[in-house]
Automatic annotation (TrEMBL):
Molecular function GO labels: sequence-specific DNA binding
CC per GO annotation: cytosol
UniProt cross-references to InterPro entries, sorted A to Z: ArsR-like_HTH, AsnC-type_HTH_dom, Dimeric_a/b-barrel, Tscrpt_reg_AsnC-like, Tscrpt_reg_AsnC/Lrp_C, WH-like_DNA-bd_sf, WH_DNA-bd_sf
Protein's UniProt name: Transcriptional regulator, AsnC family
Organism encoding this protein: Marinomonas mediterranea (strain ATCC 700492 / JCM 21426 / NBRC 103028 / MMB-1)
Matching SMART domains: HTH_ASNC
Tagged with keyword DNA-binding: yes
Pfam families listed in its UniProt record: AsnC_trans_reg, HTH_24
Keyword terms: DNA-binding, Transcription, Transcription regulation
Gene Ontology biological-process annotations: regulation of DNA-templated transcription; response to amino acid
Amino acid sequence: MSIRLDHIDLSILRALQNDGRMTNAELAEQVFLSPTPCLRRVKRLEKLGVIDHYTAEINRSLVGIEISAFVFVQLQRNSKKNAHNFEQAVAELNEVQECFVVTGEYDYLLNVATTNLKSYDEFIKEKLGDIETVSKVDTTIVLNQVKSRRQLPL
């Protein structure tokens, strides 16, 4: 389902993607609105779920997160129950940053962050490996991140 957005809504979203901490007055000035209608539009976008949440991007290396990995997971049997059980278990794992249902040989792709190789090994053996529905796990360790972009191309 797509929500109809006009050029002002898109301007607001672009501005907030670049700086989610700007004041309403700064935002209003940037999108050429007065503060009250600007705030009304932001609240509407939040209520509709277009603006899902606000967050701070943290420099991984400065907080000790040295390992970034993409983990491909295959379930024992592709069923609604197994998928539900796996997704519930993964939702509880703090190391999992993102979880995608994918096509092809694997059923899921996880974006995983840990402090070091030892903690990654423990994550695979003691957490992901303990999920009963998991049949196969393949890992790709990220050596260097060339680009990271959270902003959508609006």
